[in-house]
């Protein structure tokens, strides 16, 4: 019976040693063939993740710079729009003043022309009246005096009569 116990203990020890040797061999094989590729793969993955993070940071910074640039351009565009509006307003006011001044000038010109036309019509009317009065005066004088007047006498009578009208 003892032999069976020794043999079981020896078997257990043999199994243990076989398992231990197999485990060590397996570890050496895994270390040589699997560990290096897995480590390389993990290192590559870490490098890729680090690169992706760096790219993301770079993209974020570029986006931030682009945003700041666009905001600056927007401010410039708004300033330009305000400038254009102010210029257009100033030009509009200038044109409005020019139009009003032109209208006043034209109205003044029309008024002056009308006054000149009135003065001319008045002068024409006075000349016409003077001629009629002169003819009438000569006719009346001829009848009163009973004789014909020569041209110089007629002119003197007319001038006297007109002087009398002006007073």
UniProtKB/TrEMBL annotation:
Pfam families tied to this protein: ATP-synt_B (PF00430)
Taxonomic lineage from the root: Bacteria, Bacillati, Bacillota, Bacilli, Lactobacillales
Similarity section: Belongs to the ATPase B chain family.
Record has Ion transport as a keyword: yes
Keyword line: ATP synthesis, Cell membrane, CF(0), Hydrogen ion transport, Ion transport, Membrane, Transmembrane, Transmembrane helix, Transport
Record membrane topology: Single-pass membrane protein
Protein name as annotated: ATP synthase subunit b
PANTHER family: ATP SYNTHASE SUBUNIT B, ATP SYNTHASE SUBUNIT B', CHLOROPLASTIC
Parts of the chain that traverse the membrane: 16-35
Function description: Component of the F(0) channel, it forms part of the peripheral stalk, linking F(1) to F(0).
Subcellular location: Cell membrane; Endomembrane system
InterPro entries listed in its UniProt record: ATP_synth_B-like_membr_sf, ATP_synth_b/b'su_bac/chlpt, ATP_synth_F0_bsu_bac, ATP_synthase_B_chain
UniProt xrefs under NCBIfam families: ATP_synt_b
Self-association and partners: F-type ATPases have 2 components, F(1) - the catalytic core - and F(0) - the membrane proton channel. F(1) has five subunits: alpha(3), beta(3), gamma(1), delta(1), epsilon(1). F(0) has three main subunits: a(1), b(2) and c(10-14). The alpha and beta chains form an alternating ring which encloses part of the gamma chain. F(1) is attached to F(0) by a central stalk formed by the gamma and epsilon chains, while a peripheral stalk is formed by the delta and b chains.
The keyword Transport is assigned to this record: yes
CDD domains referenced in this protein's UniProt entry, alphabetically: ATP-synt_Fo_b
